[in-house]
Each structure stands twice: as C-alpha cells, then as structure tokens.
Amino acid sequence: MTFSLYLLLFPYFAFLFVWTVFSLAAVFHMARFGFKGLTSVATTFVYIGISVFLLMVSYGYISQVDWRQEVTVWQSALNFSSSMFMY
Amino acid sequence: MAKRFEFFFFHVYVLNMLSLHRLPDQLPDEKIIKVIRRDLFILCKKIILFVLLLILPLLFSYFLFAFQPDLLAGSLAQAIFVLGASAYFLFIWLFFFFSFIDYYLDVWIITSERIIDIEQQGFFSRIISEEKLFRIQDVTSEMRGVIPTIMKYGEVLVQTAGTQERFHFYQVPNPDDIRDTIIKLSEQCRLRHPEEK
Question: What pLDDT digit, counting tens, does each position of A38-80 carry?
C-alpha cells in the first residue's frame, strides 16, 4: 500500500491540538488558582518558554522531512526490519 | 495591544491570585502561623521521574544509533521517529507541569484562629475548607513506611466537632511538630473563646 508521508502529520496535529488545550488549561489553572508570588508567575513563564522551545525544535526537525514523498508501507516495513538484522 | 496584555496580565495574575500573606476574611488579630505544603521529597520524586523519562529515551536512542547508524535511513522511519520524539517530549513536559501544579496548589494554612485546607482536585475543581481552632477535638500524626520515617514526612489527621469529616494533611514534613502546633494553638484559642467551649 502506497501513501504520502504527510498523512502521518494528521495524528500528530491531533495530538498537538489536545496538548495545546491541556497546556492552556494548565496555564489558566495557575493564573486562576495560583498563589500571589514569584513562583506562580516564574513557573508559568518557564513552562511557556520551554514549550515554545520544544515546538521550535520539533518544527526544525519536521521541516527537514520531505512530507510529499510516497512510501509503500509493507515494503518500507520489510526494509526497516531487514536493516535491523543486517549485522 | 501591549496595554491590553498588561491589563489582562495584571487582572488575571495579580488581582485574582490568593495571597498567602493576606488571607480572605482575615480576622483583625489573626496571624499566619504556618503555611504547609507536601514534603519537598515528594516534589523531588516527581523531578527524578521527569529526569528519568527525559534521559532514558535519549540513552536508548544513543545506543541504538551507535549499533545501527542507518536505522533512520528510510524516510518513513525518519518521519515516525521525528513525530514520535516530538510528541513524547511535549507530553512528558506537560505531565511534569501537571505534577508540579498538583504539588504547588495543595496548601494547608494554620493561623492563630483557624485551619485552612486548600486542595486542588483535578482541573477546575478546588476545595477550600476551614475550621476554627477551638472546635478541634483530636489531632493525630502518622509516619508509616521506611521512606516517610527516614525523610520525616507523614499525615496529620484533625478531627473537629460534629460529624464533619477530618482535615487530612497528607505527606507533610514533620507531622509531629504540626500536631503539637495545632494542639497548642487550639488550647490557646479555647482560652480566648471560653464561650465557644
């Protein structure tokens, strides 16, 4: 079976959507129920900062893949497993 | 736009947050005696788990690629690896932040007049309960298990008058000291409020 690699992006984007919803809920939670002080604000900004960093790194790697490429599933799987046992 | 953000930030972050130094409905002579969170060891356990979840896949990948350098030669394998790694690291980062929120937002406050229990139960669910110290009838502290005994953390159970449920301070540091403090304060509070006995 042959398909375009970009199809793999759909479940990834679905995951990103759920992740974003939970992240926003977490940040809202800290803002709404956190305690006045540096810890609440600092941890929230650290979370946002590292999340943005992770997303940027992910984008860097994802953009290097040629997503328009067509792949044959079973052929690739066989190549993948045969390369595993090549040595 | 910047002013709007500033207003939003101030409104959400500063005005709505609960201050641990200025309690809601604070009585004129009420003093905060102790603000208690779960033991720091509990947070350390979460951090250690996070670091392990961070390092183990990196080590695993390092050794895998050391023995099998052309593992990601295929475009499908490369795509799955990149998406999987991205999803994995984003997930554990979110998981760690949730764990921190769970730790940070559970607080017990002992004042000279009352005990306040602020507990976060999942998302959008916060329970705040309080009880006057003169209504306290029984305080029990527990340290069960090897690690809690070594690290000196445990539970404090506070029974109040009536059929109300117990206050439960869980995984708090030095539970014996907390029990002694509550007993001492409740006795002092009863002396100040003889009519409430």
Answer: 888 899 999 999 999 999 999 999 999 888 888 887 655 555 5
CB proximity under 8 Å: A 56-85 to B: 57-58, 61-62, 64-67, 69, 71, 73, 76, 79-80, 83-84
Q: Is residue B183 part of a domain?
A: yes
Beta strands B126-132 and A70-72: pairing type?
unpaired
CA–CA distance from B84 to each of A11, B47, B149, B176, B191 (Å)?
Answer: 11, 22, 41, 47, 64
Check whether residue B174 and residue B154 sit in a common domain.
Answer: yes
CB of A69 closer than 8 Å to CB of A4: yes
Query: Taking the model in full, what pTM does it have?
Result: 0.79
What CATH number should be reported for the domain holding residue B147?
Answer: 2.30.29.30
Do residues B87 and B31 both lie within one domain?
A: no
